[in-house]
Amino acid sequence: MPNTKSAEKRVRGNARKAARNQSVKSRLKTLEKKYQTALGSGKAEDTKSALQVVASALAKAAKGGVIHKATASRKRSRLQLRLNAATAAKKVA
After folding, report:
1. What is the CATH number of the domain that holds 79?
2. What was the pLDDT predicted at 93?
């Protein structure tokens, strides 16, 4: 239990921030799953637009401090690599 009035305020603020962070992280996971399904479907336009949405959401989450900047950068890079590999495999076949 918080002992001071300011500690009580911090508890309330921390709960609000935790709920917001959880919401953003959940949305990121959902967008990544949508990207994976678009990648599996083989439709280039859908995949590119899904990648753009995910990359934007990752950058926004990093800007807001929900995830670390390097984490967002790494995830964007790996998603782009998957897209590049899929398009390269399609060109070969």
Report:
1. 1.20.58.110
2. 65
- Amino acid code (one letter) for 32: E
Interatomic CA distance for residues 45 and 39, integer angstroms: 10
**DSSP letter (8 states) at residue 2:** -
Domain that holds residue 36: 5-92
- Helical axes 69-92 vs 44-63, angle rounded to 10°: 170
Enter the pTM of the model. 0.88
Extract the tokens encoding 68: 């670390």
Q: Give the C-alpha separation, 86 to 25, whole Å.
A: 26
Alpha helices in 42-68 (DSSP H): 44-63
